[in-house]
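Task: fold both queries, return tokens.
Query 1:
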Amino acid sequence: MQSTDEQIQNYVETTLRESGSHGLDHILRVTALCEAIGRAEGADLRVLIPAALFHDVARPLEEETGVPHEEEGARIAERYLRSIRYDEARIGAVVHAIRTHRYSTGAAPETLEAKILSDADKLDAMGAVGLARTFLQAGERGGGIRDAVDHIEEKLLKLNGLMYTASARGIAEERHAFLNRFVEALDDEMNPAGRP
């Protein structure tokens, strides 16, 4: 018999049909980060893991309709969790974590689980995977290297200072250092005029 987390993952897999910079692989990496950070920080994994699995489920809908994915994803999660008779006392916390995970909305996560989801989502935008996702996203939008670099400079290089948990700050420090090395190397390669 499937665990509840496996049921949720199967549902998300069937709902999230397309891959991409915010596809299933991103969701699974964020979920793994949430589990590791959640264990280290003493979080309620019965809130955190469902929130992580659902956090970007509505991304394709946002692309089509403009409806914020964190709002629609929270509604989808709440409806699904109720349909499988999930622990009612935890559903509100799952919904809160999904609604507040997004870096750019300004909605502040208030629970440990919501903070960890926000941290894990930001961590997946950093380091080698974050760079790969940034270039993938630039291509998805018809952009090029300069568009990706602008995103790195405007957003990704600021994320390390926005972590809520000590566990995430440790990971962010390493990934931030990698981002800086990459930007320096890319700048050297794209602007070779000053070299001897």
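Query 1 returned. Query 2:
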Amino acid sequence: MAAVVVIPDLEVADHLVADDPQPEREVRVPTGPVAVTDVTYATIPGYRPLHLDLYRDPAAQGPLPLVVFVHAGGYVVANPRAGGSLLNLPAVLANLAQRGYVVASIEYRLSGEAAFPAQLHDLQNAIRFLRVNAQRFGIDAARVATWGMSAGAQLAALDAVSCNAPIAGAPTGPDLGGESACVRGFVGWFGPYDLNAQMLNAANSSHIRKLFRCDGACSPATLAAASPIEQVHAGAPPMLLIHGTDDRLALPSQSRAFEQRLRAAGVPAELLLIPAVGHGFIGVTPAVTRDALRQALGATFEFFDRVCGDTRALPSDAR
């Protein structure tokens, strides 16, 4: 005899609905804080809605400084829960939240979906969205920093040095009230900051051509405009750059040159080179990789503690 089919109570609309009826979900991270997942920060006609994950200790007293994490993936793959060689990125972000932060890990349009500068626009609109909703999420909008890996480091660094520049073709979405996309500090892990130099690396040239829709070689001027190293100015925020000495996908010279350019402009900049590890801080054994990641995370968290302190130390144009 067939089992009885039980139909649940149905909630219906009188029109076709394309939106997710349960867009935000709370997930308890094993280390403690709650992650609010799939928060929509931008709805762009013709594209999928863009989401972020938000980590916050429910017991923390706000408002708290905000760290925005931007994932790697060569602009081609990955998502807000992908951390390169870190297989438990959500637990790491939750750990940072336990230190007294709100942490947002964002997605952005990949190169197969949209050409540059869509990815930069997405990051900047995520920052603006979080500032507009600062009270809702318990954020101190004056204390915002970014953290990017690889491709995400290029995007976040570019925002850090050009946040006040006009943004052409910004995606549509909620009224963001002219909020700033400027940040108080930036941490970059194994990032490419000079895209003309990065194009010389055959392992990366195809990703860059796809990102810019180049037919053949990309214009040096186009790549320079998207290179953080070419946009450095004296008003840029403090930065921490971390790179493995054996990286062959984004050479450590990328971080060395960027640090030198920042220091020449009077921008506080730190460079941490981790020996014997490559891209993603991957070493010859899992133990070497873990040790490199612990070193990088320790330096990263200490940097955020320093730059997200008293707002009286923050330049007025970054508040």
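Both queries returned. Flag for query 2: The first helix runs from residue 89 to 98.
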